[in-house]
Design brief:
The complex is a heterodimer of chains A (324) and B (336). Chain A is α/β, with parallel strands linked by helices and 324 residues long. Helices cover 37% and strands 23% of the residues of chain A. Chain B starts with 7 loop residues before the first strand and ends with a helix. The chains are: A alpha/beta (324), B alpha/beta (336).
């Protein structure tokens, strides 16, 4: 058995403020080296928060984190100071939806990549610049020598996304976190970026956690999928399991809402209602009030974690009843 | 198809935005946002409009209700021509619009019932009657008037706000509703609810929709006919099945091929188009798509193809490959 690259055990994240928000409520997850996992969910489901916890970029004074996160055996939640700075960008790196916010507007792309390499690898300025050129070539930015001297605002949307990927991968991280990096792009550009990420992931042999709300994107990019709802993973499995044999009613609803193969004019089997506000830790199934199969038990206690195979788990009473 | 005049008819619609910023604010170029497009919308149908960002789909929507003034072309509603025998007021009453950003399109200081009643009140309906209408419409879009009439926009979720925007658009009893990425910002499960609502309202009120979206799955589900735009022009327009199953323009084929696969065993191997959509400032000569088209030939660079009607159906395509005797060397290869 391989040692997992990432192990998340019973992760909880709570934000305190005027009203507390229980953003992540008991997430368990493993990622093997070189594997791509998609976290699929809607806004407010806690998928981005989970990613940000892995990089420890949540505001410390307002966030209470429970459980454990290990990346390559290192306890991420215990890191501080220089060790944390080495972790960020060295071992784990992240790309975002909006590259305009992720890139520094007052430095050129070349300077930003070179700086990262110099900080993490102690390289000279010349080596940093050489790596910047190499990275821009690898993400297939046309005329990379010229683009080294470009500022972010001088590039098009798709090109900025490529530049951000180059920056994130400059120090050959073991784990890449991707927070909806293609959501703001046109479909014609989105598929280019997805293919690029797929290729770079294989080349660099890194693990990737890819957050998205789009089932189609998850299919293109991932080996495994974790479906997230109200701060919990409701279903995990291989991409084939999730697409062909979804077990949780929420997963089924999400797949239907994608409209792939929907019959024109026929009413959609839409999930009613809206996700719950997360002002208290859940003590019952969070999906019960929108679920057509909900029973008294769903509203009274947390749903069971039903294992359906290796690394295949559903938090719902339905598969448990089917098994019994 | 009946021989009756189409409900909405657009002929040669054009909008060019001058680019300022040169010496003393002199013009430095022109964005050819919409460049002489013509199409019809029949009563009761849904016309989908798709294309990449910058192709002119939203500008087209705004031109249709005169939110921006066209530089050329004519708009006809029920055979009456805007500016001749169709006053702008009548056009706007009959063609209403729902925008993508549900929050920005509502006045933060108006309650939901005030927001919906505002238009009718300004147009001479008494406050009491307009309020009654607002409650009726709230109910119609699935929001219980007792709970929602007195709320402000920030007290509603995105899906609920979009329902209010739809109710407000319906307050004038319009014939046509333009939905400009109206469901794009919603979560998938909420989007499905709103699409169901739009289907119900269309059946109940006999509405005609112009449905603009970048999501090709949603457009296929909603539309009777689809118009594909590229750099301010129509690349292809036709019945939804023809566009999705027998696309004739290489650009339409590329757009469809760029949709993520839903089959883990048949992933997309190659991106159908390289690079970003080109800038609508000073678009390419001839066929505007020739810079990204793998079938581009000399004739494509020199001559714009123009819309050509394919035999049989109301399916028009703007490509030399589809036009007999256009001089494109690939025609034999394609038809053979």
């Amino acid at each position: 058995m391989t040692t997992p690259l990432v192990e998340i055990e019973n992760l909880t994240v709570r934000f305190s403020g005027a009203r507390d928000v229980y953003a992540v409520n008991g997430v368990n997850l493993t990622l093997n080296p070189g594997e791509t996992l998609s976290i699929l969910g809607e806004s407010g489901s806690g998928k981005s928060v989970t990613l940000k916890t892995l990089l420890r970029i949540l505001p410390e004074n307002r966030t209470t984190i429970g459980g454990a996160i290990r990346v390559q055996g290192t306890d991420v939640l215990a890191l501080s100071g220089k060790a944390l700075a080495d972790h960020r960008g060295g071992v784990v790196s992240m790309i975002f939806q909006d590259p305009m916010l992720a890139l520094d507007p007052v430095y050129t792309i070349g300077e930003q990549i070179a700086e990262t390499v110099m900080r993490h690898e102690g390289a000279s300025a010349a080596e940093g610049k050489a790596r910047a050129l190499e990275m821009l070539t690898r993400v297939r930015i046309p005329s990379p020598e010229r683009r080294l001297k470009a500022y972010p605002h001088e590039m098009s949307g798709g090109m900025r996304q490529r530049a951000m990927i180059a920056l994130a991968l400059a120090c050959k991280p073991k784990l890449l976190l991707a927070d909806e990096p293609t959501t703001a792009l046109d479909a014609t550009v989105q598929i280019q970026i997805l293919l690029l990420l797929r290729e770079l992931q294989r080349e660099f042999g890194m693990g990737m956690i890819f957050v998205t709300h789009d089932v189609g994107v998850a299919v293109e990019i991932s080996d495994r999928v974790a479906v997230m709802y109200a701060g919990q993973l409701v279903e995990t499995g291989s991409i084939r399991d999730i697409i062909r044999d979804p077990q949780h009613p929420y997963t089924r609803g999400l797949l239907a809402a994608n409209l792939h193969g929907a019959v024109k004019g026929a009413r959609l089997d839409a999930i009613p209602g809206a996700p719950p506000a997360l002002h208290a830790a859940p003590n019952a199934c969070s999906f019960a009030e929108r679920c057509a199969h909900a029973q008294d038990r769903c509203r009274a206690e947390l749903p069971p974690r039903v294992t359906l195979g290796e690394r295949r788990e559903v938090r719902c009473i339905l598969p448990e009843m089917a098994k019994a | 198809m009946s021989a009756a005049a189409p409900l909405l008819s657009v002929n040669g619609l054009t909008k060019h935005f001058p680019l300022k910023g040169g010496f003393f604010g002199r013009s430095t170029g022109t964005v050819r946002a919409v460049d002489g497009i013509s199409f019809d919308v029949a009563e009761g149908e849904t016309l989908g409009i798709v294309g990449e960002s910058g192709c002119g789909k939203s500008t087209t929507a705004r031109l249709l209700v005169d939110l921006i003034r066209p530089d050329g072309g004519e708009i006809m509603l029920s055979a009456r021509r805007l500016g001749v025998d169709l006053p702008l007021r009548d056009l706007r009453r009959n063609v209403q619009m729902v925008f993508q950003d549900s929050y920005a399109s509502l006045n933060p200081r108006l309650t939901m019932e005030e927001a919906i009643a505002f238009g009718p009140t300004v147009n001479g309906v008494s406050t009491a009657e307009a309020t009654r209408l607002a409650h009726e419409l709230l109910f119609k879009v699935g929001l219980e008037p007792k709970r929602f009439a007195g709320r402000y926009p920030h007290e509603l979720s995105g899906g609920q706000r979009q329902r209010v925007n739809i109710a407000r658009a319906l307050a004038f009893k319009p014939k046509i509703v333009i939905l400009d990425e109206a469901v794009s910002a919603l979560d998938k499960s909420v989007e499905a609810q709103v699409l169901n609502l739009l289907g119900d309202l269309k059946r109940e009120l006999g509405l005609t929709y112009i449905f603009i979206s970048h999501d090709l799955n949603v457009v296929r589900y909603m539309s009777d006919r689809v118009m594909v735009m590229y750099l301010g022009e129509i690349a292809e327009i036709g019945p939804v099945d023809a566009i999705y199953e027998r696309p004739s323009h290489p650009y339409t084929r590329a757009l469809l091929a760029a949709m993520p696969s839903m089959d883990p065993d048949h992933l997309t191997r190659e991106a159908p188009l390289a690079g970003d959509p080109p800038n609508p400032i000073n678009p390419p000569s001839g066929c505007r798509f020739h810079t990204r088209c793998r079938h581009a030939a000399t004739v494509c660079i020199s001559t714009p193809p123009g819309l050509y009607t394919l035999p049989g159906e109301r399916h028009l395509v703007n490509c030399h490959l589809a036009i007999p005797n256009s001089g494109h060397p690939g025609i034999e290869a394609v038809t053979a």
